[in-house]
Batch of 2 targets.
Target 1
Amino acid sequence: MMFEMTSPPRRIHRLLVANRGEIARRVMRTARERGIVCVAVYSDPDVDALFVQEADHAVALGGATSTETYLDQSKILAAAALWGCDAVHPGYGFLSENAEFAAAVQSAGLTWVGPSPESISAMAQKVPAKRLVAAAGVPLVPGAELAADVSAEDLTAAGARVGYPLMVKASAGGGGKGMRVVSEPAELAAAVATAAREAASAFGDATVFLERYLPVARHIEVQICGDTHGRVVHLFERECSIQRRHQKVVEEAPAARLAESTRRGLHQAAVAAAEAIDYVGAGTVEFLVDGEDYYFLEMNTRLQVEHPVTEAITGVDLVGWQLDVAEGARVPDPPTVPNGHAIEVRLYAEDPRHEDLPSTGTLRCFDVNDPRVRVDTGVATGSEVSPYYDPMLAKVIAHGRSRQESAARLAAGLRTARIHGVTTNRDMLVAILESSAFLDSVTTTAFLTEHPEVRMAAPDVSTLTAHSIAAAASVWQLAGESIGVVAEGAAAAGWRNVQRPGGISLDLVGHHAESLRDNGVTVHRRWRRDAGWQWGLSTLHERIGAHDDEVIWLQATVTSAPDSSTVRVVLADGARFDVEVSIDGDANAGMSIWVDDRRQHSWWQVLPRATEVDAHAAAGGPSAPVPGTITAVLVAPGDTVAPGDTLVILEAMKMEHRIIADADGVISEVLVAVGDSIEAHQVVARMDLEESDE
């Protein structure tokens, strides 16, 4: 699709991409196709990242945190000057919606690939933005503005006017940051304080406001694009209702089961909102849809994370459109009807079973290569998933003739992927795509609340049985047969002799099923004269002094060729599993074992042979669940605390985590301060525990 040039072109020859990860790679892909030289900037944790390797030139920003690097305007402008860039593309997030930065880029004589600073400013603050679009005739959700020093009385009154449940929202920024749902008046003050603190940290602006919360609404957005000649067009809508922590997880285009009158109204309202601010470039207008009614939510004055689904159904390269508009071209006529259906999921390094806790570490394997899906990612095998940035590993997109076809393709692509080293939400995503609740019904923002079963998705019992046996058999082979005859006290970590001659057992903990995460499993092996080799399973809480009647002994055939990672397990009922087993570490230092078949995946760790101990005593006190930065310390030595009291607030992967007391006690020592960077499981405070009267 070609643009018409009606003014002297401002050709872009050398482009600085002021971002990281998959979006930096995405922008550079289109730019390189046009012969544009691409310059990357990078933080210390990103020194070996794919986007840095793929850039024509790269500049080290120096530092680890976003504030030190990707949010430092002066460093980025200096990098652009160093390599003689004539344009800057901000991607999404970071400085993409910073009017001051856009103006600074233009003042430096560079082309800003995005809307004008005035347009960004008009939509950057959600409260003034709502006033502006209301004047253009766009309907709004009932809400209330809050002064920076709002009194307790005024806050209570504002909450009553809006009505409960309501949402506290940051006026600046987006991406689910600075947002809290409040169900009753008693929760309001604390939610406002927390949201303001998150907003200040993420966006440098602590302003928040109240808005009526529609728990079962649909989240639908419209892709628009404007040019410097006054024209704004839409490229249909996207459904983004399935969310966690108010961040999107599944996105699709077009929206399914939407009344055509509502669809047309959304398109018209989005164009009207963009025209009201003389919008130039790609942008997204977001709405909440309740039945056939719709309400303006916000406008994102940038390229959206989920733009690939729009590209799939329109054939438009949105980054290409951005570059063309920045060079002065007119927006062409868009397609009049969408082509098929597209779905995108966000593959996160996090655990849906445990409150979406982020996961960090080295990706021992990252292989998502089904040719039927598009994968936009910033990581590869060997990449380090750090605590400094969003935990999204990749966007995986499928396009088909129908919604059902694209969902099936996407689920299949995720199932065959091999991902080792971190916990992910892959099983949950597959469960969503294959569920009747998704395929046959209208999805809303309450989807994950109403269907908690998808969060607990895991391999079935038969698969886990076979996988655990394959894991143990592979470790057995790696360790050698001699491990079965060592003395009890000399056995490697995780192994122990079974009371019957010639047998040993291996203690494993799984990262994929609640029952196995909590209890783990012990895999036993023994030789019976009348039956040959037998495999047995028992749970870890039974492992100390286990007897035969506590072990489920199975007839299973295990075949593993020497020096091969392929293992075949055939259970007594005939069920056959051909799996790939990958092992990292050694039996004494600790081992991780990944087992992959064509449809299911599991991750195991060898546990040391030790008796279970109290978690608090083992850690030495309350500790961090993930690496991150301390943003608040709420206790001091001498303070008395009770279970559930917040001691410290930790920011990790752009989210706030509360470290709480797990027992009654008195704080004896605080081991961290605001601004400290800490590791996972690092103790943050010492407590003198109160003895029970019982």
Note: The longest strand covers residues 232-244.
Target 2
Amino acid sequence: MKHFGKTLLFIALFAVAAAAQVPLDVEVKILRAEDELRFDADLTELLKHKVPAVRQRAALAAGRIGDAAAVGPLVELLAGDPAVEVRAMAAFALGEVESIEAADAIQRAIGETGKAKLPNVVEADIRGRLAEAAGKIAAANAKDPKAKDLGQAILFVLEAEHLKGADQNKETVLLALTAALRARPEKTDVTVAKFLTNSDARIRIDAANTLSRVRAKNANEQLRKMLSSDADAVARANAARALGASDDKTATDLLIKAATSDVDSRVRVSAVRSLAQLKDAKAAEALIAHGTKVLAGYKSSMAEGIVPAEHSEFVEVAVALGQIIPGSFNEAALKLFKDFAALDKGATSEVYVARVRVAPARGEGNAPELTSWKQYRTLAMIVGEFAVIEPKTEEGKKLKSEAAAILEPLARAMAEADPKEDADAIMAAPATLSAFARFGTDSLDEILRLALRNPDVQIRAAAASLLGDRPVADANLDVLKNAAEYAIMNDPNENDAALAAMNALFKLNKTEALSVLDIAAGSPDNLIRRRVHQMLNDEAYKGRELSPILKNIDRTDLLRVRRYSGKGTRLGQVLNNEADYRRAAARRNGSVKAVLTTKKGTFTIDLLPDDAPLTVDNFIRLANSKYFDGLEVHRVVPNFVMQDGDPRGDGTGGPGWTIRCEVNMVPYGRGTVGMALAGKDTGGSQWFVTHSPQPHLDGGYTVFGQVSERDMAVVDRIVQGDKILTVRIVGR
């Protein structure tokens, strides 16, 4: 398990010791409580256990469960437990619960940690966790007045650490920087900018990351210096990203230099993206020249069945050109796109879209050959672009006026496609419907209503979401209610359509949504019932006369997991039994690895059963069933993540169940492996590896593995469309 900083190692040692001291039967009991999202008397008693390791583990479970009833017991641990590791975990857990009821205790503890008699290094660790909790609670309760106070407490922690100079606590700074990103208190940029010149590269990296995500505008001078001279490549990359986010057009020349000449591709890609944000036309010539150079490397690196790593960088350049010089008909850019298409065989939709942006309706090379669902999707994306671009030729203007008519029959056909007969249409339909919706034609609502009757869950989910953005119409409300009721009752393994229809109804007409909530409240799917709970807490329903079902329902019961007694599984349900819990618990302190083979090479994931036992067990079960073998890497974002595990290949697929989040203290550094989510407790089979530190993911996405720096050379070469050939488990 790889952690950063001496102080975090201090905490990690406690955690390792704790794991060894928690009896197997107790661990099994805790795993079951987490899986059932059940904070009860048994877990409350474990928070008072004589063994510190048990109290620490129970505190983590309380945070994972997220029941506000845990706030009181956790605050007691925070205020008075003699074991520092327990107090640190209590702070972490309070952040996961996200209840504003903990705000006063968090603020008080932030002010008091420096006064305690325990060693400063220990107290600093706790203060970092307190800042982390403050950020999560403030973000979850942004409208509450106490959120502002929590934000100021975070800045207080950062200012105090800055004044310490060389004696500052690294972990505290890193945690507080991410907390500031979440809470976004006033004058965040002023305080965070002070860390851009820190001697520690990781602190500079996280400071720049925070500034980029809050779109700070008052730190550009320091960021320009970092981009031009920082020795750390990731720090330069984050500085480039922050300059783009700040809309600093005076940084264009510096970004051009970084995009075309930096020795590290992560910096070049980040600079290219920022140039796309700035949309300064003077960057075009340099990007075209750089794209030509990258394409030459791409061509020379090509081998049979292997897509070179240069592919990703070229795509970024193409996308940027589409943003920077739309409608310019730039001949050099068009030649670049054409040369790439000859090598790529029309597989990359982003480049086609960029070409259309540069030369709307220019003809040659604008449309892919329709040989797969990806090409169908690309065609829809291309035509959909005419909803937002302004063609400068008569031909282009004519096509724009005709674009909706071109897409309409395709969208209609896909809305009515039979999953048993036309898999390509089914896979391409969500993107096609989204592209057609950009035109807002009179026939759009009718086609979306047709799509809401499709057997495919993802098509219904897409149609419901799009209808939710349309003007209110009785016909739409009626079909959304029917679609929601159907999905709740008849989709056993996917809840996407049910949740999308519920959300659309709620957005359009909260009164009409109430009848659906009656049915949804009785769903065996915990995620659907949790959404009912969230909706009923909305201001719109306060003082409103509710149905007997909703009026008398046990709100707490909506959050509890119900065991599904029928055949198969339901999303949001407990999938594990006693043997599963024992097997997962028994892996503690063991060594288990996943060995993944690709055409780019082999890399190994060191799995972390101590930190995420049920997530690791789920991954192992899928791997042993050969679920991952042959799956396409459906997402690669350079300098961010490589993502796999989707059998559909479009980012929406899964195994037919979801698993609980097992958030933990392991940070997202380079090579960290986490579970992809569409919301809390929605993990299943999709996983990702980070290319560089991503602190905004910490404590939100389950970390369950780590790829070594040695093996990251293989991960870095993987591009979208590559396949994971095999996944084999080694160890227990």
Note: The CA atoms of residues 543 and 551 lie 11 Å apart.
